Every structure is written in structure tokens, then in C-alpha cells.
Amino acid sequence: MMGAMLALLVLLGQTPAPGTSDLIAGLGSGRYAEREAAAAALEHLGREALPVLRSALDDRDPEIRTRAAALIAKIEGALLTQPTLIRLDFDDQPLTEVVRTVGARAGLKLALIPESAPGLQGRKVTLREHEPVPFWKAIDRLCEVGHLQYNIGMPGQPGSREPVFPLYVIGVRPTGPTSDSGPFRVNLVSLHYQRDVVFVNPPQPLNRIGLLPALLPGPANEARPASTTNEQFHAQVQVAAEPRLSLTPNGSLRITEAVDDRGQSLLIAAGSETATPRYSGGYFGLTAGSTMQMQAPLKHPEMPGKVIRHLRGVIPVMVATRKPSPLVAPLSGTPGTKSFQNDEVSLDILDVRINPNPNVNQTSIDLSIRPRSGLTEAQAAPIALHGEFPIQRPDLHHQQIEVVDAQGRPIPWYHSSFDAEGARITLTLTPTGQGSPAEVRYYGLARAATEIVFEFTDVPMP
User: Fold this and answer.
1) CA–CA separation, 406 vs 399, rounded Å?
2) For the segment 203-230, what is each residue's pLDDT rounded down to a tens digit?
3) pTM surpassing 0.90?
4) I need a labelling partner for 82 at 20 to 30 A (CA). Which of 25, 50, 132, 263 fits?
5) Fold type of domain 85-175
6) Residue 353 to residues 336, 347, 397, 408, 429, Cα–Cα distance (Å)
7) In this structure, which topology does domain 2-80 adopt according to CATH?
């Protein structure tokens, strides 16, 4: 019981945190209350507890292994849905240095484009906030004082290991309706309304005996209307995550409130809410990237107001990022299959082929990646928590698979073939300034399901 009380005091901030090894041991305590208290204390430590929790996955006690796996998934998921806070404390500093420092604090590269813009090197800015601010606000403030622009849908530099966020030296960025939620930003791109009156009805299909319904007796032969009216009204939204993250939809966008300044609801009938996702390449060059576009259907009233007073909704997503330590598979050595594995996967290098044409700098690598056989229940828990094993998703391969030369420089590649059932992949490499491929790196993903809440107010009605 003393261990439970000590952990509770830690959570309340009334005593220094005990050694994490003591808390790991507490996960296997014979008392349920002490196991729960140790788990709560480790969860409270957050990122600091991850290394010792990962080492606990090999503990002999199955209770410790199971609880450690669950805590890892919970802590990593929580970190994915929290914004990166950035300190802004610059007084009359060169813009190029401010951009570099802000990027370092955000954990990515901010690239000024073009780097040789006139007057860029001599430009100085003051950028100061009383306390750290979320990533998107920091980027907005930087663009405001530095006369910069950014385009959320534009990818960074291909083949770069770290996320790259381009900033364009072409004037102050125009702003539109935005809504921030944690590390996510939702932009209201447009409101679209269209009303069509159709006078020519499409031809009627023939029935079984080859006759038009109009030639047969009965209700089908009644007069058809001279025209029909079709309406389309929807909001186009763009969802963006911080560049360190990738997004995939995890359900349909839901509009929870839509009302104009006359108090009229713009919600469509229950059961007919649908949203069409549209994807753009993210900062890792993914189909499942850092941005998505979706359409939210709305109802246009006969006598609409001048503005949409409130437009609120929820977007379910799966958010992911690379884990820091990859499985490394060297490509050198004798020909033949080479096998490598970590706690999650087995990776086989099946074949490496160099294009025989001396004028074509091209190499193909055949890989097989599968969930590692013999995973313990604790080791498999984080994978099972997020559903389908991610390697079966070819759109995630660019985030998980990296090929580098002997100097560690990433080499661009594309899929030549993909066998989902056998998890066999062929990568075709086209080096552009890099050396020959030296190793393949496979990164696991930390993933979490979450909902992005957005709200816009006083938007002009179309």
C-alpha cells in the first residue's frame, strides 16, 4: 500500500518522482491498487517513461509486459494529439536565423524559397510571445513579421529524412477562415452552391421485354414532370496536421451545427450526411499525408441569411508518425535472402538488381515484410490496438521504408510492384546525386485515433 500512496503523491506533485524502475516493478505488484497507481504515475511521466516501458516489454512477468505495452500505446497516442509548443523570443534578429531556429524548435526544416531572394540576407525581424505557442500560430506569426507565405498542400523536398516546410518569400500570406485543434488546422476553402433546372429527362431504360415503360399500361405510363430541380450545397474544408504527422480518414466528416443569421438550420436530413475525402501528398510524399480535403454537405434554405453564423463539425482521423529507431538491413554481403527482425516485423532482402544498361542509373530491391512470428501478447498489443497491420498499406510505405547510401543520404524510390497478400514489395531506386544503396531502414509507426473538432463563425453565405 505504501507504493500506491507514494505514486499518488507523485501525481499530486507533493514528492519527487521515484525511480522508474520502481514504478515498472509496481506494474507487477500483487495488489491491484498498487498496479493501478504505478501505471498512473508512468502515464503522468509521459515521454520520459517510454524508454523504460519499452525495455519492460521483455520482462519475465506477463502482467508487467501487458501493462507496459498498453501504456506505450496510450502515451504515444497522447503525444500525437498534442500541439508542438514553440518559444518565440527574437528581438531584431536576422530572418534567416529566426527561420532556422523556429524550425529546429519545431523538429523540422523550414526552407526559405527562393533562398537567393533580394534583400533576404539583410532582413531582420522581432518576434516575441509571452509564452510558447502552438506550431500553427508560430508559423502564422513568423509569416506575418517576415512577409512570407506558405501553402499547406505543397510537399517538402523529396527524399529528405526530416519533414520540410516551405516558406515562400513573396509577400504576406492571405488569410481565410481557420480553426485550430491541437496539432491540426482546418481551413474553410470554399462554400459551393449550385441550383439546376433540368428540362430534358434522361431516356427511360427498356424493361425485360424490350419495351419502354411509357408503352405499357399502368402507373408507369402517367405523365412525367416537365422539369426537375437539383441543388448542391457544400463546404470544402482542408485538414492539415503538423508536418511531423500523417493523416488518414477514420470515418466520415460530421457537421454538428450549421445555422445562418436568421436562425435557420443548414443541416441536411439525418442519415444522408456524407463527406467526400480528397487527398493531397503530404510532407513525406504520401497518399496518406499531412493534408486532406473533404466536402461537407449542407442544406440551402429557400430564404437564406447573409452569413452562416455557426458551422461546427468533427473529422475522425488516424494520425501517425515514425518511431525514432528503425530496423536496419544492410544490402552488402553475399547474394541471397537476408533476414532481419525487431520486436514488430521480419524484413527479408530477397534480391538486389542493377539495371544492366550503363546509361540508366537504376536499382531494384525485392523485399518481404511481415509481422514477426512468435510475438508475445504484450508485443502484439500496440499493433492490434490500431487494427490492420500497417505494412499492408502501400500508401504508408514511403513513411516507413527508407533506402540510404553509404553516407546516410536517402535515395528516392517508387513501387515497381506490391503483393499485399504476400507482403512482397519491389522498390525501384533512381539516385540523383546519391551513391549506391547501402541499407534499407524500416520505421515502425506510432499511431492514434482521434477526432478533430472545428468551428467557423460569420461566414458569408453563397
Assistant:
1) 20
2) 666 555 555 555 555 555 555 667 788 8
3) no
4) 25
5) Phage tail protein beta-alpha-beta fold (3.55.50)
6) 12, 18, 20, 20, 10
7) Leucine-rich Repeat Variant (1.25.10)
